[in-house]
Amino acid sequence: MEHNYTGEAPLIQLVSFNKLLEHYDEQAKSDDQFLADRAKRVLKAQEPYPELRDGFDDLSVLEKRKEVIHTILADTFSSVLTQNEIKTASVPYDNLVFNSSDRFQKILADAGEDFQLEIRNMPDNLHYIMQCTVVLNFYYGFKIDFKRPLFYDIPDAKGVMRHYRILYNADFMELIPTEKAKDLKQKDLDELLENFDDLELWKEKIPPNSFIAKGFVISNMFDVTAEHSISEIKSTLIGSNKRGSENFMENFQDTFRSLFNLRNISVGFAGYDIDTNRLLKIHGKGIESFILKGKEQESCDTMLCEYSYHKLMSESNYVAISNVEKYYKKSSGAQPYKNLFEQGIKSVILAPIADNGNLLGVLELVSNKVNELNSINANKLIDVMPFIVSAVLRSIEEEQNLIDAIIQHECTTVHSSVYWKFQEEAKHFMAQELEGREPAFKEIVFKDVYPLYGQIDIKDSSKQRNVAIQRDLMIQLSEITEVLQVALKKFELPIYEELIFRVNNHLEEIKETLYTNSEQGIFDFVQEEINPVFHHLKREDEDLKAAIEQYEAQIDDTTESYYDHRRNYDESVMEINMKLAALLDKKQVAAQEMFPHYFERYKTDGIEHNMYIGSTIANDRSFDGLYLNNLRLWQLQVMVEMENAHYALKQKLPVPLDVASLLLVYSTPLAIRFRMDEKKFDVDGTYNARYEIIKKRIDKSFIKGTNERLTQKGKLAIVYSQKKDEKEYLRYVKFLKSKGYFTNKIEIVELEGLQGVTGLKAIRAEILYKTDDTSEKTYTYNDLMEELKA
Question: Cα dist. 681→165, 411, 415, 695 in Å?
Answer without folding.
Answer: 61, 14, 10, 15
